[in-house]
Amino acid sequence: MSTPTPETPSNQSHDNAKNDTEHTVDEHAATPLSTEPTAADEARAEHTQAEDDSANNIETDSIETEHIETDKIADETVPATDLSLINEQSTVRRYKTDNPSFFMQRGYQILLVLGLIAAFVLVMIYQTLFGRITQPQQLVTIEHGDTYYGLLPKWQNVPLFSASLAKLYIKSQVDAPLHAGVYQLPENPSLTSVLKVLEQGAKVAMVKVQVIEGKTSKDLYQTLRDAKGIKKEVLTKDADNASIAQALELDGILPNAVTNSQDYIVNHNLEGWFAPDTYYYGEGATDKQILTDLYKLQQKALTKAWENRAPNLPYKTPYEALIMASIIEKETSVAEERPLVSAVFNNRFKKGMRMQTDPTIIYGMGSGYEGNIRRKDIDEKTSYNTYQIDGLPPTPISLPSAASIEATLHPADSDVLYFVATGNGGHKFTNSLAGHNQAVKDYLSVMRQKKAQASAQ
């Protein structure tokens, strides 16, 4: 007996594989062959279930296949993207001119560079004006004609120092010219601190103090006494060697033989201790200030030369070297001859000879010297007459220059023992008594000729 097929709903337009499978299963299930299930029925049922499961799998695969095919159709309808164009755009950057981030980035870079330049310039300006040179507190003498620009080489070793910036600063800030004078510079000065000191010279009148090499301390004292505009604190009318040394607090630099001497010329004599040169001081400066400054300059020159002296010299102390320098200063004014004169006395000491130098006779005569040395003057024994005493005189006999101090401590390498004036400037140096005697004869001959020529005119 057959079971009627159910009618398909009118609103369903398509049947799918799933519906067909379900109809088939229903038809088999609706036709009973027996009231009791048999083994064949069970087997048929199991086979039917397997077919249903297979049908379901086929249906799912079919749906997925339809989706894949749909995607393929969609892909075929849209053109593929050219990957080369993507890569090209990623490697080449193109900025629009109105891109604000680009200009901000460039602006920051420019500001950074400008900032570094500005910082460098500021450091250079600071080092030029305030960078310090290493030197102790010292006196400096400015001569007429010296300029501020002449001071700039002192700062060349200061890092980032600029001479051009220094000149620009001087030109813009300093109105008055550099005045001649002696100025006390501070320790480790900067350019601005030195300019401040030097500018004070333009505000006061200056007094010239000229101290000539070879002159004596007595000459120096008289120069200061005569100088208008210099206050007298030390060089009073009744001042003597002892009062001057004590007022300047310099008596401690003298040997006991000098401070305790019964010879009025020797006692507390500060001869040789003041540096000869030309100085300028502001009106109102004191003689004590000037003498103290000149002492410090001389002491500095002597200390420097002594520390760098040649070996095997006969001088035991710097003071002995100062005495010899004062004698060399009196013997010659020719710079090239100073080391040779030094060698003469050095060689004489080594041979146990006396110095026998005329300037020592003159100094020991004091006010008794009238312009000529007589035989009795040579034979008279004084504290200074090196024809009559051994070794050095007790004190210097003049104010020696730094050049004479250097020559004393660096004599020429020579065996000369004598020297005498030539009559035409300079001296004749010899290493034997016979040669010296001949040089003396030549000198006397030249002097007779000059006297005859003068008489003929």
TrEMBL record:
Known role: Functions as a peptidoglycan terminase that cleaves nascent peptidoglycan strands endolytically to terminate their elongation.
Question: What is the recorded membrane topology of this protein?
Answer: Single-pass membrane protein
Keyword Membrane annotated: yes
The record's subcellular location field reads: Cell inner membrane
Going by the UniProt record, its keywords in alphabetical order are: Cell inner membrane, Cell membrane, Cell wall biogenesis/degradation, Lyase, Membrane, Transmembrane, Transmembrane helix
Q: What's the family? A: Belongs to the transglycosylase MltG family.
- Residue spans making up a coiled coil are none
Entry-linked Gene3D superfamilies: Classic Zinc Finger
The reaction(s) this protein catalyses: a peptidoglycan chain = a peptidoglycan chain with N-acetyl-1,6-anhydromuramyl-[peptide] at the reducing end + a peptidoglycan chain with N-acetylglucosamine at the non-reducing end
Report if keyword Transcription is assigned: no
Q: Name one GO cellular component term.
A: plasma membrane
Task: Site Important for catalytic activity: give positions.
Answer: E331
Q: Name one GO molecular function term.
A: lytic endotransglycosylase activity
**Which portions of the chain have biased composition (kind: Basic and acidic residues)?**
15-29, 41-50
Task: Write down the InterPro entries for this protein, in alphabetical order.
Answer: MLTG-like
Q: Where are the transmembrane segments?
A: 110-129
One annotated GO biological process: peptidoglycan biosynthetic process
Task: Give the start-end ranges of region Disordered.
Answer: 1-66
According to its UniProt record, the EC number is 4.2.2.29
Name of this chain's protein = Endolytic murein transglycosylase
